[in-house]
Amino acid sequence: MSAFDDLSTAVHPDAECDGCALATAASRRDFLREAAVTAAGLLLLLGARPAEAARAPLRFIAALGAGTDGVRYPLPAQDGVEIDAVHDVILVRHQSAIYAFARACPHQHVALRWQETEGRFQCPKHKSRYQPDGVFIEGRATRGLDRFAVTLEGSSLVVDLDRLYREDKHSAQWKDAFVTLAAAEK
């Protein structure tokens, strides 16, 4: 028998750990899990909220209708991300502005995912990341998300699916492809 066969008696020769709650790894995991649950419960009682609660939520939407000038949507009521899977449009309300993006990553046109806890978009294929306003952060892509031209018409947002701007080829139009909430309130 080696010194490692019975570590408990090698460390504490007088101790007996048979039946001891700390003798098994499962019991240690149970203890740690219960401690974490207790700590989380105390934080909730004290008013703490999970980080996700502060992030912009994701909702799926449908267009109000389509016309010759584009597809109409209701103005987003709160900050967040709305996806119209039928027209492959992502609407984002962020910091008093509303943007409309193509749903695909500009690198290899894979459908983007909204990472709510991080407050950013990410391509699942090569992990390119984008801010909520479509600005490129990092990854294999080389530009920001492609933006559609948007206008306000009454209480609707009109997205022109025929005018899609790439940041690298249409820089001025790309920078202007959003509406502000102040303009929406007029």
Features:
single chain, 186 residues, alpha+beta, Rieske Iron-sulfur Protein, 2 domains, 4 helices, 13 strands, 19% helix, globular
Task: Describe the 3D structure.
With 186 residues, the chain is α+β, with helices and mostly antiparallel strands. The chain has two domains: 7-48; 55-184, Rieske [2Fe-2S] iron-sulphur domain (Rieske Iron-sulfur Protein, 3-layer Sandwich), CATH 2.102.10.10. It is built from four helices and 13 strands. The chain is globular and about 65 Å long. Residues 2-15 and 47-54 have low confidence and may be disordered.
List the helices and strands and how they pair.
Layout: H1 7-11, H2 25-45, E1 58-60, E2 65-67, E3 70-74, E4 80-84, E5 89-94, E6 97-102, E7 113-115, E8 120-122, E9 129-130, E10 136-138, E11 147-153, E12 156-165, H3 171-176, E13 179-180, H4 181-184
Parallel strand pairs: 1-4
Antiparallel strand pairs: 2-3, 3-12, 4-5, 5-6, 6-13, 7-8, 8-9, 9-10, 11-12
